[in-house]
Amino acid sequence: MSRRFEGSMAERWIEHVGDQVLDAVEAFGRFALLVWLTARAALRPRFPLRETARQMESIGVRSLTIVILTALFTGMVLALQTGIALARFGAKPYVGSVIGLSLARELGPVLTALMVGGRVGAGITAEIGSMQVTEQVDAIRSMGADPIQKLVLPRVLAATLALPMLTIFANLLGVIGGLVISTAQLHISPNFYLETIFNAVTLEDVLSGLAKTFVFGWIIATVACFSALETKGGTVGVGRATTRTVVTASIAVLISDFFLTQLLLAL
Q1: SS3 for 1-45, per residue?
Q2: Digits of tens for pLDDT over the chain (267 positions)?
Q3: End-to-end distance of the chain based on CA atoms, in angstroms?
Q4: Crossing angle for the helix pair 95-102 and 64-87, to the nearest 10 degrees
Q5: What's the Cα-to-Cα distance from 149 to each of 35, 174, 219, rounded to whole Å?
Q6: d(CA 254, CA 102)
Q7: For the chain, what are the domain ranges?
Q8: Element (H or E) spanning 245, and its range?
Q9: Cβ–Cβ < 8 Å for 245, 31
């Protein structure tokens, strides 16, 4: 009897795992289809230029506050911790080089993507997800318009273009935050601080960090739109889709950052 019970439990577990794998493969297929339809919509006539500009303002300009706070205090904390660590080896004056490289290559792009992704991803999913559950997306189709071109494409393009600009802004503010702490608390000359940054950080470092932000922006917007269009179950479903977007986009940004770093280092 116990063996039969254990066998049935194992069979149910294998069946459950198999269902999960099949669901994941099916979801990936729908995601790939959305990517293809979005790319095709960009080549169609009647490009949604006005809506893209409006989304640039919504995604880029309205995210400045969170980028300012994140970058400024990240630079300050990084300067404080780096200064304490380097002081043990008598290299405290070279805090600027560590801050510059860290911000340009990793912290600036990744933290900006995570902060903006949480705000923008949740906003996109809530907006389009509400339209999906109230059948407004179906209404767009019934009027002969393409919801991918009207809703998805502007947001994907806006996020892809806005995130690099926000990252540049974040890098500058991070350097300024580090300058404040280095001057006021670590007693490092501002001129020497900036000189070490210019000597350590090259154009290649900056460009390698910015190159990743295009991918991050695309991931955030595409994941958000996909979750929104998959939303079911009314307002409760919108809440679940919003949470799923933030978690999935954050994990995808971190995973893609590793592979993009490997690729850029190999070039």
Answers
A1: CHHHHHHHHHHHHHHHHHHHHHHHHHHHHHHHHHHHHHHHHHCCC
A2: 455 545 577 777 777 777 788 888 888 889 999 999 999 988 888 888 898 999 999 898 889 999 999 999 999 999 999 988 888 888 888 898 999 999 999 999 999 999 998 999 999 999 999 999 888 888 888 887 888 999 999 999 999 999 999 999 999 999 999 999 999 988 889 999 999 999 999 999 999 999 999 999 999 999 999 999 988 888 888 889 999 999 999 999 999 999 999 998 887
A3: 61
A4: 140
A5: 12, 36, 17
A6: 16
A7: 44-266
A8: helix 234-266
A9: no
What single-letter amino acid sits at 162? Answer: A
Q: How far apart are CA 94 and CA 149, in angstroms?
A: 50
CA 235 to chain centre: 25
At residue 54, what is the residue type?
A: R
Residue 104 carries which DSSP code?
Answer: I
Helix (H, G, I), strand (E, B) or coil at 218: helix
Residue type, 142: S
The single-letter code of the amino acid at 211 is A
Token output for 166:
């926000």
